[in-house]
Amino acid sequence: MPDHHHHHHHDDHHSHDHSEDIEPALQSLLYKQIEFDKVLTLNETLPNAGSKIVQKTWAQRMSLDPLLESDADEQLLMTVPFAGTVKLHSILIRSSDSDAAPRTLKLYLNKDDLDFSTATDLAPTQTLTLSQTSEVQDIPVRRPLFGNTYALSLFFEDNFGAEATGIYYLAFKGEFMKLNRDPVEVLYEKAANPQDHAPIVGINDMAGNRTGPGM
Questions:
Q1: CA gap 145, 134 in Å, rounded
Q2: What is the pLDDT of residues 43-100, one digit of tens each?
Q3: Which terminal residue of the chain, N or C, has fewer Cβ atoms less than 10 Å from its own Cβ?
Q4: Hey, how many other C-beta atoms are within 10 angstroms of the C-beta on 83?
Q5: E strands within 43-136?
């Protein structure tokens, strides 16, 4: 007899899939706009681990490998450059429910030469407090402050008491505004040229002419 009640209880587990909370906003994930080869992480245990966790797709967000782990102490400093200007809306991060989860995250806007001593002295653009959880956290930023972002530095200042900090997934949501100076450049290459203010009709011709190195 008690078995029947047991059967009914199983349906409640259906609401346990939290991925649907964030999933609809996937169109606003800034992924292709990140310059992965230029992501710089200070105090990482393994070279390029910071770049590798940023390269994880949404589908790989729960994967435990690769892991970004701090080396000499619990602090990590990452700089993530974008291929143009973005309006940043929020940061997606997944760590763990252990003491190695990052706690204080300081954000710095468009500082591509930040190191630990500068980050300690400089007032951050915004400070976020992270949770000790293995769920993906979607943390909004103050949008007016990040409306013209081409590089974002993330200073993970401390954790919940462990010697090292560990992060599995890091992503960004927002709007991609334009590539360098001229939105037309999006159609054919990365490097913008200020002289390219030609009428729209000429775009195809220009694309054909500019296949050589244009840096």
A1: 28
A2: 999 999 999 999 999 999 999 999 999 999 999 999 999 999 999 999 999 999 999 9
A3: N
A4: 17
A5: 68-69, 76-94, 102-109, 126-129
Instruction: Give the number of residues written for the chain.
Output: 215
Instruction: Say how far apart CA 54 and CA 136 lie, in whole Å.
Output: 14
CA distance linking residue 32 with residue 165, whole number of Å? 27
Identify the CA nearest to 166 among candidates 107, 101, 103, 105: 101
The CA–CA distances, whole Å, from 72 to 44, 76, 163 equal: 8, 10, 9
Question: Which amino acid would we find at residue 148?
Answer: N
| pTM of structure | 0.73
Q: How far apart are the first and last CA of the chain?
A: 76
Tokens for 54?
């940023």
Residue 206, helix vs strand vs coil? helix
Structure tokens given for 208: 């054909």
pLDDT digit string (tens) for 15-25? 444 444 555 45
Q: Are strands 166-167 and 149-159 parallel, antiparallel or unpaired?
A: unpaired
Instruction: Pick the closest to residue 54 from 172, 194, 209 (CA basis).
Output: 172
Amino acid at 146: F
